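Deliverable D5.2: sample structural annotation.
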Amino acid sequence: MPRPRKHATNAARQRAYRRRKRNVHFSSRSDCWETPRELFRALNAEFGFGLDVCATAENAKCDRFFTPAEDGLAQKWEGVCWMNPPYGRAIGDWMKKAFESSREGATVVCLVPARTDTAWWHQFAVRGEIEYLQGRIKFGNAKNSAPFPSAIVVFRPPQDAEKTTAHWPENSAA
């Protein structure tokens, strides 16, 4: 005798499977993705970051950082800044702030999803130096790689914009 069906349709079965397998870290329930340590170390060796513009006390990569309570978007960004912004709807605001801060003298290095189909990408990311990361990176202590490709976007002050940036280490594809 065949096993009784648990789900009415194949689509219902697939939805149930995705819900079981979904980690909150990779869902729309969270827009915070902790920077991979090795990626940050390589970038920090090249740039020497002094400020993490959007962090929490638990995931800050620099001694000086802005928390959500301090609202990094409302602060002045100076020196060499690291930015791994929340990946939700406000990412465009963060990219705008990064670009504008570079016009005021800061260097801002951004880890962002490579969402080339979005308005923020075409309004701001294309104005910086873009390095697409190979494969899908693993954020924080996640077991799985991100479900999207990532890129590093560097906004430099106008006088430094002509400098080229070395290629960053390749990521292991998962």
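Annotation notes: The longest strand covers residues 107-113. Confidence is low (pLDDT under 50) at residues 21-29.
The annotation will be released with the project's public dataset once the embargo ends.
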